[in-house]
Amino acid sequence: MVLPFFFLVLIVTQSGSVRPQQLQQQSKNIFILAGQSNMAGRGGVVSNTIAGIATWDGDVPPQCSPNPSILKLSANLTWVLAHEPLHSDIDFKNINGIGPGMAFANYVLGKDPNFGIIGLVPCAVGGTKISLWEKGTFLYKQMMKRAQASVQNGGTIQALLWYQGESDTESQEDAKSYKAKLQKFFLDVRDDLQSPMLPIIQVALASGSGPLIEIVREAQMGIDLMNLRIIDAKGLPLEPDNLHLTTAAQVQLGKMFADTFLKFLPSGPIVSPIRSSAPRNSSNFVVNILIAPLFLCIRMILFLTNIV
To answer: Residue 154's pLDDT is what?
Structure first.
């Protein structure tokens, strides 16, 4: 059974009015959601072939229902109770529907009820090539701004969830340069978040806006970095546009994200240097201090190799 959108908004509005200040101050397990339209969510978005107008059907599956333990960093950098469409105020130039974020968070809490508050940081924007996510671009700066704001009042960045690449399947130049650009993006994110071992979970494409899907998929699967995991969306059902995942597919993808992330947790959530002023977990801090110089050496070797 799915919840009508108006009922969903009523629940969230009533719940959110109870303790808005407490939402900002709670310590959170934070996840950055970035990429393009299939991360932002187009599940349930249908286009009227006559009028050419896209609309969302408003159906929210129970796996994506609001949960008082799931928050979202809004476009104005405040924490609110999360609800679908998760990216509505971020990817605001497009019609958003169901994405993987809410299903992911609900699955994590279902598997580990003691996990704590989850803070989702939506950053995805539809139709964006990897070049638009390079360090120094508007999207990259916005993502970093939101990531840094997310930890100000208590929280730890646990992982980057990444789903992008459909727009890079249109030209040979984009597809063939994709691997190098994506790897640099991942390394830059870890650098700027001061978290050299930050878990990254990326999605291998299920579709593309061009014919070079397999080249981009091979690039995605060919990146070999520590704490980088890949989940494969190939074969998940698509909307009639043959580009975007259906609502059911997004729920399945959320579960795949959750199952993969939970394998990172043998004894508890990951402690990242990018966190609030709460007491630091000293053992994890030492690990990061020891790993950081090694990480910089690896980057230098990769850089020199590319020059040669």
So the answer is: 87
Q: What is the pTM of this model?
A: 0.83
Backbone dihedral angles phi then psi of residue 136, each to the nearest 5 degrees: 100, -15
Instruction: State the catalytic residue, choosing from 168, 174, 209, 244.
Output: 244
Catalytic site includes residue 232 = no
Q: What is the pLDDT of residues 66-91, one digit of tens each?
A: 999 999 999 999 999 999 999 999 99
Give catalytic status of residue 241 as yes or no. yes
Beta 118-122 vs 29-35: how paired, if at all? parallel
Q: How confident is the model at residue 153 (pLDDT cuts 50, 70, 90)?
A: confident
Question: What DSSP character marks residue 168?
Answer: G
Task: Give residue for tokens 């201090």.
Answer: 289
Helices 172-192 and 213-221: crossing angle in degrees, nearest 10, is 30
Residue 266 burial class via C-beta count within 10 angstroms: exposed 0-12, middle 13-18, buried 19 and up = exposed
